[in-house]
Write a structure and sequence with these properties.
205 residues; six-stranded antiparallel β-sheet; four-stranded antiparallel β-sheet
Length: 205
């Protein structure tokens, strides 16, 4: 009886070891595959987080994706650049979204560093548009005069020209170059009543 019990015990241990071995070898690769944060998932989550920031922010109206970089197996940093405009300021933001987790289970944290840049319409940008607007009113006009800054976003000028017919009239128009929130310059104009001069061909005194 003692020999039969020993044989049964040895066989039982061999069967137990044979059954346990495949379970251990299968678990190891599964653990390794889920430990590393999935890059595609992290990039998608980062884009969604940045998009949510863009929608919620009242000034930043455009957020551009600039790329992602893995910092460690469970951390990926994604960079974005945001911009927006108010009437007097341009606002730019360097945005970083940190995605941290394993596999396709992660959380995203957004950090931003923003600065406001005063907006200014320069004479170099305004003058060609003022000249073009005056040219449409009077191709034979005099040079623009009374050129002056109204405020950081507006520059004004006066166009003067002569209209000859049965009478000679001097006409003027006020032109205003205005920078809008989309960084586009508009140039409205206001015509002034023309001043009647001497009759054409009249003898000089």
């Amino acid at each position: 009886m003692g020999r039969r019990q020993s044989l049964v015990l040895v066989l039982g241990c061999a069967i137990a070891l044979t059954a346990a071995a495949p379970v251990a070898s299968a678990a190891a690769p599964h653990h390794a595959s889920t430990r590393k944060l999935n890059a595609t998932f992290a990039r998608t989550l980062a884009r969604q987080t940045a998009r949510h920031f863009e929608v919620q922010n009242q000034v930043i109206v455009q957020v551009n994706f600039e790329g992602c970089e893995r910092g460690s197996p469970d951390k990926i940093h994604c960079a974005f650049y945001g911009r927006g405009t108010t009437r007097l300021f341009s606002r730019v933001c360097d945005i970083t979204v940190l995605v941290q987790g394993t596999g396709t289970e992660a959380i995203a944290t957004l950090k931003r560093r923003c600065k406001a840049i005063p907006r200014l319409l320069t004479f170099a940008r305004a003058m060609p548009l003022l000249e073009a607007a005056a040219e449409e009113l009077a191709p034979t006009r005099d040079a623009l005069s009374a050129i002056r800054r109204v405020n950081p976003l507006e520059i004004m000028a006066t166009a003067t020209w002569i209209v000859s017919g049965t009478t000679t009239e001097e006409c003027t128009a006020t032109l205003l170059a205005r920078l809008n929130t989309r960084d586009i310059i508009n140039v409205p104009s206001w015509l002034q009543p023309c001043t009647v001069g001497a009759r054409a061909g009249a003898a000089a005194p």
